[in-house]
Amino acid sequence: MNFAIKKVTDVFNQQIQATIDGKTKPLGALGQLEDTAKIIAAVQLSTVNTGQQSLSIKHPSLFIFAGDHGVAAQGVSIAPSEVTSQMVANFASGGAAINVFCKQLGWQLSVVDAGVLSPTDNCLGVINQRLGNITAPLNIAPAMSLAQVELGFEKATALVKSVHEKGCNLIAFGEMGIGNTTSAAAIMAAIIGIPASECVGRGTGVSDEIVKIKQQVIEQALELHQGNLNSAKEILASLGGFEIVQITAAMLAAAEQEMLVVVDGFICTAAAMLAIDINANVKDYMIFAHCSGEQGHQKMLSHLQVKPLLNLGLRLGEGTGAALALPLIQAAAAFYNDMASFTQAQVTDVTDANNNKVEN
Ligand SMILES: O=C(O)c1ccc[n+]([C@@H]2O[C@H](COP(=O)([O-])O)[C@@H](O)[C@H]2O)c1
Ligand SMILES: Cc1cc2nc[nH]c2cc1C
């Protein structure tokens, strides 16, 4: 599957910067909200809203993709794989952190079974996009086949298209999967080309001893699959998870539909790295919500040269960081649309006086 993602043009950058700088505030005083407004404006002025001046966040939707990881049986998590299906049931009945935040903040929340141990057919509203029950342990065999990766890409793409058709223009991704910090750290090591020790972390909160086991498992996996890590899809088949496959594809499909993409924590950023590897244009559509407490996440973000909005020490996943960033994203669009300019408010333009921006 290929994704035709329009490159966000820089033709409007000067206009966008002038709009932001013309607002009644010292230059740069809205900090990262200004950077966020620039991302939204660059996407919306150069794609959907060409020529239109105001920014819009329509029907913000958050998708949690859940998948189980065979590597969990190698003792790399505090929790057994059964917890993934149990948490999916918790999402379906509204009891998880992400349910509370989505309800509070006005996100539409959907839960996707990308392949968890116990099929979740009896969970109300859970979307069935299963690629299997659980991946193979990545240090022993390829996590899945390339055919499963392709199927995941097809299913995720169709899902995103249907959400876009309902009028959504901003989509966020979260995940749930016991063992998936091992998979994400292995993906990170493969993509960045750094040792497993720099990528591995405590995940759900494992001990130093288990961190060492995780590191060994990742090192075994990288050695086993060397030669089969030449493309993002090969990396996904060798080291991925069913939820990571579908998040990667969903990010690409969302950018293809000219939607903004909100990236959550460590695992979702691993998917973002893979998506960027497949089509670099997708990065222009991404807003990085937060820096997770998972060691390795800051390194991923630095590698991508992006600055997330929040740094709250969250390490839950489920899309919780993405959900909490929504009010800031909305605030960025709102100040861009609604703040008065120096001219409109008849306030002395301090940017001219102090920064010699106007040549006269
Ligand atoms: O989003 C993050 O940065 C993050 C950091 C640490 C853990 N998690 C969550 O914890 C689970 C994976 O942890 P583990 O220890 O089982 O690999 C998975 O369900 C993730 O949603 C998520
Ligand atoms: C209880 C629990 C909830 C989670 N939510 C995301 N990852 C999780 C991991 C565990 C163990």
Automatic annotation (TrEMBL):
**Single GO molecular-function term?**
nicotinate-nucleotide-dimethylbenzimidazole phosphoribosyltransferase activity
Which EC number(s) does the record attach to this protein? 2.4.2.21
Tell me yes or no: is Transferase among this UniProt entry's keywords: yes
Enzyme class name? transferase
Give the CDD domains listed for this entry: DMB-PRT_CobT
Q: Where is the active site?
A: E318 (proton acceptor)
- What is catalyzed by this enzyme? 5,6-dimethylbenzimidazole + nicotinate beta-D-ribonucleotide = alpha-ribazole 5'-phosphate + nicotinate + H(+)
Q: Has UniProt tagged this entry with the keyword Transferase?
A: yes
Instruction: Summarize the protein's role.
Output: Catalyzes the synthesis of alpha-ribazole-5'-phosphate from nicotinate mononucleotide (NAMN) and 5,6-dimethylbenzimidazole (DMB).
Give the family from UniProt.
Belongs to the CobT family.
Which named protein is this? Nicotinate-nucleotide--dimethylbenzimidazole phosphoribosyltransferase
* Organism of this sequence: Colwellia hornerae
